[in-house]
């Protein structure tokens, strides 16, 4: 397999095949990004000997076994529940005073109606986003394959025609067929990992600490295996989707044939995966550099125009010139920051999708050549 050819052509698609940009940006906008998730641990104290694992004022004495721990958990939970009920009651009184006295509204009915509307809007946006996601993915796969076959670059409307097909629906079903069994297996294994803690819950204190240590070891092993399984599932999806889009195969047929092709050429697919892992590691560095430059540019643009708007509003005698400046400057600041980053994310999607499509074509060609070289039965 010619790896350099695959990555050169994928990069060429990014730089010269502009119709792909549309679908790459749409795919980036409708793809949940896990790399931006941040978990802050600043709220936890590390000195358990002074404040306890469960928070300030709760000290756990491990020498007294599991009973002391469960008592501490129960006391902490009871205090938190009482405090929560007190806060909720106070918030209800404040909201009732605001809506019924100050605004003359029945806040419970109006908020319930407002939340219902928000829920329906969220459901509609989720469905529309999913449709756009799978149509964009279909267009990227088929347009790259079409260019390899014909040597021509299609326009955006040609991509939409390719996307508006049964393939987009099948790609969605392929994800369900793979993800649902994987999720069930994950939950079963997760339950088995924490099963030893049931001994603690049943009051068998003699093996309490031993079960905690055993569960901790299983938990880290489970996380490691789960990460490997998730990457294997991603590889399978890449091959199953392209089997469906390029060979017009059904859902289960795509998964089966994609799995066979991946298993037979795991070395080639694994090497491409490793290179793309390096791309995904280097990409945040590029985004961070661009973000620093964009912050300075956004401050100049958003702050300058916002200041000009505020001064103009003040000269015209507006009641709130500062508010006017902020209402103009802040959206401009966000637009200057967000639009270039989304564009970069779209280009990354084009590169990754093109790489896997070209890899699939190369691997399929290798599989065809291997089939031709096999001795035919007489």
Question: What can be said about this structure in brief?
Answer:
This protein is mainly α and 378 residues long. The chain is 81% helix and 0% strand. The chain is built from twelve helices and no strands.
What is the topological layout?
Layout: H1 3-16, H2 19-29, H3 48-51, H4 66-102, H5 107-150, H6 156-163, H7 166-193, H8 197-201, H9 208-247, H10 251-264, H11 266-315, H12 321-373
How many helices? The count is 12
The helix-and-strand class reads mainly alpha
Beta-strand content estimate: under 5%
Quantity of strands, as a count? 0
- First CA to last CA: what distance? 31 Å
Using only CA atoms, what is the Rg?
28 Å
Spans where pLDDT lies below 50 across 5 or more residues: 33-67
Secondary-structure element sequence?
Answer: HHHHHHHHHHHH
Largest beta-sheet characterization: none
| CA-based shape | globular
Mean pLDDT figure:
77
What is the helical fraction, as a range of percent? over 70%
Can you put this structure into words, describing what you see?
- The model is unreliable at 33-67 (pLDDT under 50).
- The protein has a domain at 165-264.
- Helix 2 (19-29) packs across helix 12, helix 7 runs antiparallel to helix 9 and helix 9 (208-247) packs across helix 10 (251-264).
- With 378 residues, the protein is mainly alpha-helical.
- The protein contains 12 helices and no strands.
- It starts with a helix and ends in a 5-residue tail after the last helix.
- 81% of the residues lie in helices and 0% in strands.
């Amino acid at each position: 397999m010619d790896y350099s050819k695959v990555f050169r052509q994928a990069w060429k698609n990014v730089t010269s095949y502009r119709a792909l940009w549309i679908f790459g940006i749409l795919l980036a906008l409708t793809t949940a990004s896990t790399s931006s998730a941040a978990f802050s641990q600043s709220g936890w104290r590390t000195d358990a000997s002074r404040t306890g694992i469960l928070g300030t004022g709760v000290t756990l004495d491990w020498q007294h076994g599991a009973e002391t721990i469960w008592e501490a958990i129960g006391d902490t939970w009871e205090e938190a529940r009482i405090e929560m009920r007190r806060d909720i009651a106070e918030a209800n009184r404040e909201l009732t005073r605001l809506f019924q006295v100050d605004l003359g509204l029945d806040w419970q009915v109006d908020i319930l109606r407002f939340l219902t509307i928000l829920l329906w809007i969220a459901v509609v946006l989720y469905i529309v986003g999913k449709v756009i996601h799978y149509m964009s993915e279909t267009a990227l796969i088929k347009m790259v394959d079409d260019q390899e076959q014909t040597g021509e670059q299609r326009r955006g409307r040609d991509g939409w025609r390719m996307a508006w097909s049964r393939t987009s629906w099948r790609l969605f079903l392929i994800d369900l067929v793979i993800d649902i069994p994987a999720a069930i297996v994950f939950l079963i294994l997760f339950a088995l990992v924490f099963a030893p803690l049931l001994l603690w819950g049943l009051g068998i204190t003699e093996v309490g600490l031993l079960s905690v240590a055993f569960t901790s070891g299983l938990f880290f092993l489970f996380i490691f295996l789960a990460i490997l399984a998730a990457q294997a599932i991603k590889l399978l999806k890449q091959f199953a989707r392209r089997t469906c889009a390029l060979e017009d195969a059904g859902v289960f047929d795509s998964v089966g044939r994609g799995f066979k092709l991946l298993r037979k050429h795991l070395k080639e697919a694994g090497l491409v995966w490793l290179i793309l892992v390096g791309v995904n590691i280097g990409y945040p560095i590029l985004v961070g550099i661009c973000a620093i430059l964009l912050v300075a540019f956004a401050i100049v643009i958003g702050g300058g125009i916002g200041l000009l708007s505020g001064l103009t509003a003040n000269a015209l005698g507006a009641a709130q010139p500062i508010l006017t400046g902020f209402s103009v400057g802040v959206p401009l600041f966000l637009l200057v920051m967000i639009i270039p980053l989304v564009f970069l994310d779209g280009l990354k999607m084009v590169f990754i999708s093109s790489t896997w499509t070209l890899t699939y074509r190369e691997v399929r060609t290798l599989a065809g050549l291997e089939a031709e070289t096999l001795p035919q039965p007489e």
